[in-house]
Amino acid sequence: MPQAVTPREIRRRIRSIKNTAQITRAMEMVAASKMRRAQQAVLAARPYAERIRAMLGDLAAMSSPQEEVRAFPLLQRRPIRRIQLILVTSDRGLAGSLNTNVIRRAVDFMTHERPELLENFDIVAVGRKGREFLVRYGWPMVAEFTRITDRPSIEAVRPLAELATQDFTTRRVDAVFVVYTHFINTLKQEPRVLQLLPIEPPEGTGAISDYIFEPDPVTVLEALLPRFIEMQLYRVLLEASASEHSARMVAMRNATQNALDLVAELTLTYNKARQAQITREVSEIAAGANALGALQ
Amino acid sequence: MAGKLRVEVVTAERLVYQVDDADMVLAPGAEGTLGILPRHAPLVSLLSMGEMRVKRGREEDSLTIFGGFLEVANNVVRVLADVAERAEEIDLARAEDARQRALARLRERRADIDRRRAEMALRRSTVRLAVARKRRARPAPGGPPLPEAQP
User: Fold this and answer.
1) Which residue of B has its CA nearest to A229?
2) B121 touches chain A (CB under 8 A)
3) Are the Cβ atoms of A219 and B42 closer than 8 angstroms?
4) CATH entry, B90-136, from 3.30.160, 1.10.3470, 3.10.620, 1.20.5
5) Quick one: which of A128, A165, A212, B64 is 20 to 30 A from A139 by CA?
6) B12 CB near a chain A CB, below 8 Å?
7) Digit-coded pLDDT (tens) for A105-148
8) Within an 8 Å CB–CB cutoff, is residue B76 touching chain A?
9) What CATH number should be reported for the domain whose range is B5-88?
10) Is the peptide bond before A198 cis (omega within 30 degrees of 0)?
C-alpha cells in the first residue's frame, strides 16, 4: 500500500467508484428492459414471418414451371462478380465484445471466404460503430443507416431493403449478404452471415396447391418477394437489437460487480489507514507526554 | 366453431386483431372488395388499401389495411398486412394533419419522389379519416344497445 495515500483521499475514491457503480447499475436496468422489449418483438414478428415463409415456399415450389420461377429478378442466381455486405452493429458502445465480434466476422468473411472479391464489394453500415470502423480502415462503404438498431421498426427497414433490392436488380451486385449478431440467449450471442439476395425459397409443403389466387399465382409471388426481404431484414435487426441489449446488460452487470469489489477493497484499505493514523497519533501523544514527564 | 370464421390480422410487427366468431369479412382485395363467408374455398389474394370490416352478430369491427395478403383456408381468414390498425386506434387529429401536409406538398407541384410520397400519404390519411369518422358516427361497442331493426 502506498504510504502517501491519506484516508481522506481513499474516501474520495470510494465515493467516486460508488457513483460509477450506480450509473452502471442504472444502465444494466435500462438494457434489461430494452432486451425484454426486443425479445417480445421477435416473438410478435413470428406469425407474420412464418406465414410469409410458408406461402413463399409453396408458391415457388408449386406455381409455375421452374423456368418461370427463375425469371423473377429477386430469385435469379448468377455468377458472383460483386457483392454487397450489410454490416449490422450497434450505435452505442459499452456492450462488451459485441461489435468487435461482428466486425471481425465481416472481415473474416471477406478475407477468407470471399478473397477473390476483395476488390469488388460494397459495404453498407447499419449502426454507428460499424460506420466508424469502416471509415477508419477505408472500407468501400456505399451507405450508412444509423439509429435503427436500438429499436428496429419495419418502416426503418424499408429503405435498407430498397437499397439492397435495387443494387441487386440493376446488377450492380450479384448477391447481398448480411453480417449480424444472432441472439441465442442472454449470455450467448453469435455473429452470423445470412444471404439476403438472391432469395433461396424455403421448402414448399404443397399445402396451397388447390388454392384460388387473385389475381394469379405469379402476381402474388411477385408481391411476396419484396415483403420476404423486408421481413428477413427486420428479423435480423431484431436479433441484433436483442443481442446488443443483452450484451450491454451483462457488461454493465460485470462493471457494477467490479466496482463493488473495488469499493470493498478500498474500504479495507481505508480502515487500515485510519487505524494507522490513530495509532500514530496516540504514540505521538504518548511520546509527548513521556517527554514532558522526563523534563519534570 | 361451426359456421363461424376465425379472423387474424398480423403485420411484421404485431398481431393487430384476432377474433374467432366472425360471420363475414369484407376486405379491400386487389381486384375489388372481397366478401368472405364461412366455408369459403381456399384463397390467396393481394390486398390494396382500404377498410376491412368484420361482422360478428350485431357487432361490426373495422380496420384499415394498407397492402398485403389475405389467405382463407378451413374457416380461417388470415391477413398479412404491410400496415394495419383497428379503427379505434386511429388518431383523428394526426390523420387530419397528415392529410393537410400531403395536400400542401402536392400543391407545390414538384415532380419528384416527394410527390409520389405525398400522394401515398394523402391516400393513406384519407382512408384513415374515412374509417375513423364512420366509427365515430356509430355508437361505441359496450354503449347502449340499439333497438333491433324490424324487417
Assistant:
1) B12
2) no
3) no
4) 1.20.5
5) A165
6) yes
7) 999 999 999 888 888 999 999 999 999 999 999 899 999 999 98
8) no
9) 2.60.15.10
10) yes
